[in-house]
Every structure is written in C-alpha cells, then in structure tokens.
Write a structure and sequence with these properties.
Helix content: 40-55%
Strand order of the largest sheet: 1-2-4-3-5-6-7-8
Number of helices: 9
Radius of gyration: 20 Å
CATH superfamily of the largest domain: Alpha/Beta hydrolase fold, catalytic domain
Distance between the termini: 79 Å
CATH architecture of the largest domain: 3-Layer(aba) Sandwich
CATH class of the largest domain: Alpha Beta
Oligomer: single chain
Structural class: alpha/beta
Order of helices and strands: HEEEHEHEHEHHHEHEH
C-alpha cells in the first residue's frame, strides 16, 4: 500500500513538473494572442486626414502606425492590448479626435505581419520608437502627449509615462502586474518564478506624477475590476476612477466614455499647462 502511494505521488509530481516545464518553454505562445490588422481608418468614417507612418526601433525593426494631426496642440498616443491591434482599437480611441486631439496609433512587433517576436521589452522599444517619431518628426513636446492604453497597453502607457514628463495617462482595463493576474488564475503553478514578461506596473507607478484616469468595466471577466482598484489605491493624485456599469473588457470607449475622458483631460491637462 505504501509502495503504491509512493509511486502515485511520484507520478503526480512528474506530471506537475512536466506542466511547469511546458509553461516555461511556451509561455509567450500561451500568453500572447497576436493578430493581424483587419481594418483601416476609412472603415470608421473618420473625416480627419490621417497618414500611415513608418518608424524604426532601436533594434532595427520597422513598424507602421496611423497618425492624425492635432487641432488643439495635444496628442493621444494609443497603445492597444493583447489580442487587439490598431484596427480593432481605433474605433474607440478615435472618438477623442472629435474634441480636437491628435492621435498616434502604435503598433507592435509581431502584429500585422511585422517582423519580430512580441515581448515586454519589445513592446517598450516599439512604444519608444513611435514617441521619438512624434517628438522629433512632428515637433510635439512630451508635455503635450497623453498616453492612452488598453489592457496590456495600459502597462506600456504607464511604463512610458515613468520615463517621460507627459500631460496625462488614460488606462483602460489596467492591473498591478500580469504576474499577479496570472498567479491568481493559475494558483497551483509557480507563475511568478517562471514568467518572463511580468509588466509590473506596481514597481513604476510611484514615478508617475501626471494626472491618471482609470477606466474599467464592472463586468470585466478577463481583468476583474479589483485589479484596477488595487492599482488605483496605490497611485498618487491627481487621479480619477471611472467604473463603466455592465461593461466588459473590450467595450469601454463608447461616445459617453470618450466625452468623460475629454472632460478629465480638459480639466487636468489645462491645469498642468497653466
């Protein structure tokens, strides 16, 4: 009986270790859902002129993005999330152009047929390349940039804001860290110990003094609202939290939300400019 129990424990342990090894080796394939572009700005009846721009990252990867000039001197720099692309994100964030904001849609390596493997470090390199283009080619001061991020893109927006003095940050579907989200989901696995890309916003949020607007759906079943509230709690003022009732993870920026974002920016970005 004891011998049989020993072998049972040994088999269970071997299976567990096998799962851990598989998770470690294939974690990025499991974690990321990289998709192609299916839309262009014309699909959204945008009346403002836009152009497709090309940037080159510090590790020599060329990426295409979309650019709409500003009418009020302020630029929204938009970072989409995992399982999205600039086409699927554009319909929501482009509503802000109706309030005079310019828009730069950031695309990542590995997405939309671009070369390279998508990673956390790669996402930051890609973001920096687009910001550099906007600053150097369009002469937009960092202080006139508003970083807007959805889901995983919110972590990219916060990372960039921790490096630059910008006007504000708008975060939709945010979290303290992907490691925390994954660890809670896979509580029986050593996720924190094996995860390469952790997007640890908690470590950098203290360096961000810009106005911060958090937006989250009450019914988000991908990133539950509690994660955003935990991040909000450790964030310095000025800040605001907008809970969208009955909304999920990918249906946050409708006309009503865009108006509330514009009101927040009008108040806080104007105050900062003054």
């Amino acid at each position: 009986m004891k011998k049989g129990l020993f072998w049972l424990v040994l088999i269970v342990l071997a299976l567990y270790l096998g799962v851990c090894v598989n998770l470690y080796r294939n974690q990025r394939n499991i974690m990321y859902n990289v998709i192609d572009i299916t839309n262009t700005p014309e699909n959204f009846s945008i009346t403002r002129n836009y152009e497709t721009i090309v940037v080159q990252t510090s590790d020599h990867i060329q990426l295409e993005g979309w650019y709409i000039p500003s009418e009020n001197g302020k630029m929204i720099v938009a970072f989409h999330g995992n399982g999205q692309n600039i086409g699927s994100t554009f319909g929501g964030v482009s509503r802000l152009t109706e309030y005079g904001y310019g828009l730069l849609m950031v695309e990542y390596r590995g997405y939309a047929g671009h070369e390279g493997e998508f990673t956390e470090d790669g996402a930051y390199r890609d973001a920096r390349a687009f910001i550099k283009w906007l600053h150097e080619k369009q002469n937009i001061p960092f202080q006139d940039m508003i970083f807007y991020g959805e889901s995983l893109g919110s972590a990219v927006a916060f990372k960039m804001a921790s490096e630059l003095d910008v006007a504000a940050v708008v975060a939709l579907g945010s979290f303290i860290s992907i490691a925390q989200v994954a660890q809670d989901l896979y509580w029986f696995m050593p996720v924190r110990q094996v995860l390469h890309d952790q997007y640890d916003v908690e470590k950098i949020i203290g360096n961000i003094n810009e106005p911060k607007l958090f937006i989250h759906g009450s019914d988000d079943d991908i990133i539950p609202i509690s994660y955003a509230k935990d991040l909000y709690a450790i964030t310095s003022e000025p800040k605001a939290f907008l809970e969208i009732k009955s909304a999920g993870h990918n249906d946050l920026c409708d006309d009503a939300t865009a108006k509330k974002i514009a009101l927040f920016l009008e108040e806080h970005v104007q105050e900062k400019s003054d």
